[in-house]
Amino acid sequence: MIDIKNLSKYYGSKQVLKDINLSFEPSKVYGIVGENGAGKTTLFRCIAGLESHEGTIIADCDELRAHLGFLFTEPFFFSMMTGREYIRLLCNARNVTLKELDKRNIFHLPLDQYASTYSTGMKKKLALTAILLQENDYFILDEPFNGVDIQSNIIITEIIHRLKEMGKTIIISSHIFSTLSATCDEIQLIKDGRFIRKVSQDEFSLLEKEMKEVTIGSQIDDLGLK
Ligand code: ADP
Questions:
Q1: Ligand 1 atom 13: the closest Cα is on which residue?
Q2: Atom nearest to 45 CA in ligand 1
Q3: Alpha carbon nearest to ligand 1 atom 23, residue
Q4: Mutate to test the pocket of ligand 1, among 8, 11, 72 (most ligand atoms within 8 A of CB)
Q5: Which residues line ligand 1 (CB under 6 A)?
Q6: Nearest to residue 105, comparing CAs of 89, 125, 80, 134?
Q7: What mean pLDDT is predicted for residues 14-24?
Q8: pLDDT tens digits, residue range 148-171?
């Protein structure tokens, strides 16, 4: 359980998160949806303890960041570090003994190559593999499906289902609605730093229709395609 109370965040005089109250329970997958700049990444960074903020973020464990796997939109890797070394480093940081890494390399990554030379999709799969092998209880997956091939998308969807079955708490952001409706129990809409709506599974198709109408309107007709 992660409990967020009265969370606000300022960058200078600009308030980017506005009095957020949310809770995330185990065995549930939460989708966070909002336009670019709405505040999703800032919220994730606050939960991960990477940003100072007002308000409280409490979890039912000693130190949330020690049990949290955070997949960044664009994972960063030091040069001269192989994929294998990266995974070992992250597991060591959690005191997890890593066994049978080659068998568990389900995305077939070239683990002995420098991770900085991986493609965008491979970097994401490496970062995801590492946080999974760390045996975390909480996961924040910021755009996990972006830049990843279709086979991996299917695998990631199944991994999310499995994590849920295992009682983990999962928070995802995605701009691809179908990936959210396939994985989430609940979708939260954020706009200008404020959570404006909570949508449960039975309303997902309505939400998708509304979002299409708001986003597209008559713009395609205006193209005058012939
Ligand atoms: P999202 O992930 O929803 O696209 P972000 O959380 O990245 O949104 O950004 C929310 C707002 O905070 C944006 O207006 C962005 O410009 C601003 N912002 C994000 N990071 C910083 C920063 N380090 N310094 C100043 N402003 C920032």
A1: 37
A2: 6
A3: 11
A4: 11
A5: 11, 16, 34, 36-42
A6: 125
A7: 97
A8: 999 999 999 999 999 999 999 999
**Judging by DSSP bridges, how do beta strands 54-59 and 2-11 pair with one another?**
antiparallel
> What's the pLDDT at 212?
78
Could you tell me which CATH number the domain at 1-67+137-201 has? 3.40.50.300
Instruction: Kindly state the average pLDDT of the residues 68-85.
Output: 95
Closest CA to 147 of 122, 166, 126: 122
Q: Parse the chain into domains and list their residue ranges.
A: 1-67+137-201, 75-136
Q: Give the residue whose CA is nearest to atom 6 of ligand 1.
A: 39
**Mean local confidence (pLDDT), 40-48:** 97
Burial 43-67, CB ≥16 within 10 A → b, else e: bbbbbbeebebeeebebeeeebeeb
> What pLDDT, on the 0 to 100 scale, is given for residue 224?
87
Assess whether pLDDT exceeds 80 at residue 215. no
| Residue closest by Cα to atom 5 of ligand 1 | 39
62 pLDDT tier (thresholds 50, 70, 90): confident
The Cα–Cα gap between 28 and 59 comes to 15
Tell me: the pLDDT tens digits for 104-121? 999 999 999 999 999 999
Q: Compute, in angstroms, the gap from residue 122 CA to the centroid of ligand 1.
A: 26
